[in-house]
Amino acid sequence: MPFSESDAVSHDYDLITLGAGSGGVAASRRAAAHGARVLIAENNRVGGTCVIRGCVPKKLMMYAAGFSQALEEARGFGWTGVSGRFEMARWADAKAAEIDRLEGIYRSLIDSAGVTLVMGRARLAGPGEVEIDGRRYRAPRVLIATGGMPARDAMPGLDQAMTSNEVLDLRELPASVLVVGGGYIAVEFASILAGLGSRVTLAYRAELPLRGFDIDLRRRLAASLAERGIELAAGVELNALERDADGFSLRRADGSVLRAAAALNATGRRPNTADLGLEALGVALAADGSVVVDADSRSTASGIWAIGDVTNRINLTPVAIAEGRAFADHEFSGQRLRVDHRTVASAVFADPPLASIGLTEEQAGSLGPVAIFESEFRPMKTAFAGGTARTYMKLVVDGLNDRVLGVHMLGTDAAEIVQSLAVALTCGATKRDFDRTIAVHPTAAEEFVLMREPVRRTARATAP
What we know:
Elements: E1 15-18, H1 22-33, E2 38-42, H2 48-53, H3 55-76, H4 88-112, E3 116-119, E4 122-126, E5 129-132, E6 135-138, E7 142-144, E8 148-150, H5 164-167, E9 176-180, H6 184-196, E10 199-203, H7 215-227, E11 231-233, E12 238-244, E13 247-252, E14 257-260, E15 262-265, E16 269-271, E17 304-306, H8 317-333, E18 346-348, E19 354-358, H9 361-365, E20 370-377, H10 380-384, E21 391-398, E22 404-410, H11 414-426, H12 431-435, E23 456-458
Parallel strand pairs: 1-2, 1-7, 2-3, 7-17, 9-10, 9-15, 10-11
Antiparallel strand pairs: 4-5, 5-6, 8-16, 12-13, 13-14, 18-19, 19-22, 20-21, 20-23, 21-22
């Protein structure tokens, strides 16, 4: 049933949102567009992790790092006298100004939507009641959109290292950096810091980085990182991080010790659910602290929903936005909308970047027969400049009905190309659809429609 003003006549607001990040702002604005009275609470800066201390500043730093390789390539294209020196403080000042500008835009969006913004620490004080710095507000619906924060307890001493928050505020580039972790945050910052000029050691317990991604991307990324001068310290348990006057020491289970002037903790993130008053109201939390929700983002407590990283479903900004809008449409316009988490593309802005959507070869093979198509080559630009970097592309195809189940790429513009192909995969494209698509030449992306013969076919794997 569509929302009406009479639904909440005894309340201050129709919706109170905790967290003014991308998901919380999207949900609040959409709810207000449907006529709801909305309050959004934020205890830090408006814009959340992505805008303030995540995706946006990280990619600005990635762009800065990319110029080191661009300057090298320029010489191969006939440019002379090309050189430069990176000044971290200048970048930091420019980044801060840009983040201030973007925060201003977010505040303007909230204001123009008619949403009330209250700055302060919010917690649930009772059913339908939220307390913000001592003042109470009431609403029949509360949306938890508080996101996540860096985890600091993977091993003793890790709390002494920088996290992804602090590394983005550096004003001086460390001579050497020990990056602890093997996930996307770790490999992204390892690539960035190496590109800016630091000596980087990437330490993780697994044999390969990026657990959860397709194995062929993981192998090729590890080789590429090593080729770019990053020391990979893999396959050994990490015992403790110690700090002294000269920097940091990472002690490993095999007795080896890794040293660097600075250390970055990139061991993962955890949901921001502490001290929100959730448990007292019957909101179930998973072992990792995330809010347990159903397909409509409802928690186990009446009148409380949660979206985004705080639910630890798929921790990506566009997913949080989609979840927030689906919640608002469902609750305030009567539309029955749900987010499909099965076909969500993801990108890792390492050097080289990679992107994926759909099933990995291992995942698809566990369900039935698959056909694998691959292409690997040196891009025209790289080859002309004398570089050795290679691009890798892979299609995972259902061996029974020809449907494309997975698209994976490592190389320049991977995120842009896979984003476009995500439309095809979401629509259920088959390999035949790819085959009858005319290529745009000369491009790297055309290789995805020029793969004619599978490199291998596999039958259904034995269940574990």
